[in-house]
Amino acid sequence: MHLTKIILFLFLIAASPYAVGQELAVKKFYHDERDGTANRGSTRILDQNEEPCALIKVRTNQRGFTFDAGQLLPIEKTEEQTQAHPLEIYVWLQNGVKRLSIGHAQLGNLYDYDLGTALQPGQTYIMELVSGEVQTVVKQARQHQYVVFQLTPSNAIVTIDGQMLETTDGMARKLIKFGKYNYTVQAPNYQQESGSVEVNNPDEKHLLNINLKPNFTMVTLTAPSGAEIWVNGERKGKGSWKGNLNGGDYLFETKKANHRDAQLNTSIDITKGPQTIKLPAPAPILSDADFDSKPAMADIYIDGQKKGQTPQLISGLLIGTHSVKLVRNGYADYTGNITVKEGETAHFSATMTKNSNTDTASGEGEVILLCKSLTATIYIDNRKVGNGEWRGKLPAGKHTVSCRALNHTNADVIIEVAGGQKRFFQLEAPKLADAQGQ
Q1: pLDDT for 300-329, tens place per residue?
Q2: What CA–CA distances, in Å, run from 399 to 132, 284, 426?
Q3: What is the C-alpha to C-alpha distance for residues 267 and 245, in angstroms, rounded to an integer?
Q4: How many CA atoms lie within 13 A of 304 on its CB side?
Q5: Where are the beta strands (DSSP E) in 257-357?
């Protein structure tokens, strides 16, 4: 058996009429007194006043004409007489019409043609029209159209019915068949936009301007001076921070040494636009310290600020290391450090030395250095002198002393030695942060 394959190529074609020849014009118009068509049988038409209409027989070789006598005297009826040759178009009008406009989609328009007389009831008139010809041109019909997307932001991605388009400099385009298509446009940190597009015009491109709405907004975070700002566990800065955040829930934190972290759980609503959020301050961790001296009634200075007189229990001190100075008339100033810890009462005690006639700016003074960690190494002016505790004499003047230990920070302190006087200094080398967690 022989099989024959028949391939039928179907070319869609469209008929496109256009006019050729001369302009639309009236060759002749006259009253035919012998023609009684306007008063005979079915061709006798009455107007709105129940009077017989005037009839114009328009003779032409083309179809598709329209007629207009104005709003005050409307056309009552038009009818093509297909059996007549040449073609006749019957136009019934009200009495008194003096002008007539004639139009054609391809041949043009003839406006307000002067009939030269007022039409009379029941009378027949003849109008011969001359015009060009309407010819039909057959051409192949295209069934594709370009769809072009202009995109903001320029890195947006377009898909049409699931197929991704190539994007260059914020433009995406595709030539597609006539029909209706669904598209999606998306970009990082922007809200997705979806829609549909219908294409049916091959002579023009279909342009869509897509401006995606951002899924973020500008947020300014402010915190008390010196406090670190953290967003969802990530450090952003200190004191203040400004940047873009997506919409959603956030954990904001402020942190500061020797303070308890402060937290704020809140949501960012991008519809509110740029916004400023004031973050809570970290709470200071406070404790107590007891100060005493021999003799008593010495003025107590902590970090340079006077706090009272010995003996005295002082509350509300921020945990950590503070400098202390005791001052009393007739006695040499006593200086040192005290470390305040959470939940404990720190103690600071000193025996003050009377002033003498000895020149304190020269000679030697007796010094006692005590490290909190007995394994720490004591250095005086960068010279190793012992471990844990040191007693001895130093020349009058300023000296740098420190306690140094493994996994501890160096506690460097500048002390002033007065000639002929005895001083006690307590030093501490705080543990490193990583070592504290071990």
Answers
A1: 999 999 999 999 999 999 999 999 999 998
A2: 118, 33, 15
A3: 10
A4: 0
A5: 259-260, 262-268, 275-278, 283-284, 286-294, 299-302, 305-309, 312-318, 320-327, 334-340, 345-351
Dihedral pair phi/psi, residue 93, rounded to 5°: -130, 160
Q: Where are the alpha helices (DSSP H) in 309-424?
A: none
CA distance 28 to 369: 134
What domains can be seen in the chain, in order of their start residue? 15-137 (no CATH), 144-211 (2.60.40.1120), 216-282 (2.60.40.10), 286-434 (2.60.40.1120)
What do you get for the CA distance between the two ends of the chain, in Å?
A: 91
pLDDT band of residue 433 (cuts 50, 70, 90) is low
Q: What are the φ/ψ torsions at residue 331 (nearest 5 degrees)?
A: -130, 150
Encode pLDDT of 244-279 as tens digits. 999 899 999 999 999 999 999 999 998 888 999 999
DSSP conformational letter for 433: H
Average pLDDT, stretch 83-108?
88
C-alpha dist (Å) from residue 360 to 355, 380, 395, 422: 9, 20, 10, 11
Beta-strand pair 216-222/275-278: parallel
Cα–Cα nearest to 169, from 158, 154, 184, 182: 154
Q: Nearest-CA neighbor of 395 among 421, 424, 427, 413?
A: 421
pLDDT at residue 203 in the model? 84
- Is residue 402 within 8 A of residue 426, CB to CB? The reply is no
Q: What is the pTM of this model?
A: 0.43
Determine how many CB atoms are found less than 10 A away from the CB of residue 93. 24
Scan for tokens 């001296």, then name that residue.
293
Mean per-residue pLDDT, 287-294: 96
